[in-house]
Amino acid sequence: MEISAITFFPRHTRITIRFHHSLYSSQVDQLRAHLLDMLPSLREHLCYNRSGLPFTEELEDTELGHVFEHVMLAILERRGLCASGQTTWNWRRDPIGTYHVTIATGKKHLVKESVLVAQAILTNLLLGPVLPIRLPEGRRVRRHEPLPVYRLAKSRDKTAPQLLFASRPARHEGPETLGASTRG
Ligand SMILES: [Zn+2]
What is the rounded CA–CA span in Å between residue 139 and residue 88? Predict the structure, then answer.
């Protein structure tokens, strides 16, 4: 996956990302279990999706851009910022796997940090073998404290990399939008 662009506005930020090998969470082995384990607050997320599913169920099979949005929101929440977000895509206009994630905050420092941590978390899951990442305790921190340091612990997991090439994204004939927010 790659971050193609981050555009800051006074009250929101737009992130363009592209996934190259997988498109849906269901294509990534154990993605849901790992994410819920790493970021338990995902269980509380409100999610406005096509099927009206709670996010914990939606997470079993949803667009990876949508997963990225929720991971970003969960990381922001750990830093004391409850925000909302939205994920859109239009693969008639953009290359397949491109998502536009809008997060409703213009706080550059926190957004940039959450983009980078979310990228690390998802790359870890997408590329495998999955290394356990320990995030800092979920306490609320003041804005000017140093960035959190997350450590990679030694992995005993010898699973082969899970690089899956998606077949045609049949369910995406046209542009779509999903929304989300954290409580608070
Ligand atoms: Zn959502």
Answer: 31
Average predicted confidence (pLDDT) for the chain: 82
Please give the distance, rounded to the nearest whole angstrom, from the Cα atom of residue 50 to the centre of ligand 1.
10
Question: In angstroms, what is the span from residue 124 Cα to ligand 1's centroid?
Answer: 21
Going from N- to C-terminal start, the domains of the chain cover: 2-181
CA of 67 to the centre of ligand 1 (A): 8
Going from the Cα of 70 to the center of ligand 1, the distance in angstroms, rounded, reads: 6
Res. 140: pLDDT tops 70 = no
Residues 6+ apart with CB under 8 A from 141: 79, 80, 148
Q: Is 89's pLDDT higher than 80?
A: yes
Q: For 53-83, b where at least 16 C-beta lie within 10 A, e where not — what string?
A: eebeebbeebbbbbbbbbbbbbbbbbbebeb
39 pLDDT above the threshold of 70: yes
Expressed in angstroms and rounded, the spacing between residue 150 Cα and the centre of ligand 1 is 25
Q: Name the most confidently modeled range: 120-129, 141-150, 157-166.
A: 120-129
Name the band, by pLDDT with cuts 50, 70 and 90, for residue 151.
Answer: very low
| Distance from Cα 41 to the centre of ligand 1, integer Å | 13
